[in-house]
Design brief:
It is built from one helix and no strands. It is mostly helical and 85 residues long. The radius of gyration is 37 Å and the shape is rod-shaped.
Length: 85
Amino acid sequence: MAESKTLRQNEVLAIQKDWKNREFVEVVKLNMLQIVQFLNNFDSSARYKLSCINEKLHSLERMLEFCEAAVQTSNTLTSDDGGVQ
């Protein structure tokens, strides 16, 4: 009878330990999912912001090219005058 009781206690302890392990695994799994979700959101946000910066940079490059062309045209017209007014 004492052996039966000890066996039963060991089974209960094993079940409790198993539940604690399962709970720990579940907590780790949920935390990993949160980290992955954060990283995915960060990636998406960073890509969007870099895309916006790239568009602004492209726009500035076009404006700079336009200004350079205007200055070059102005210089060409000025040098074609030959100093005659």
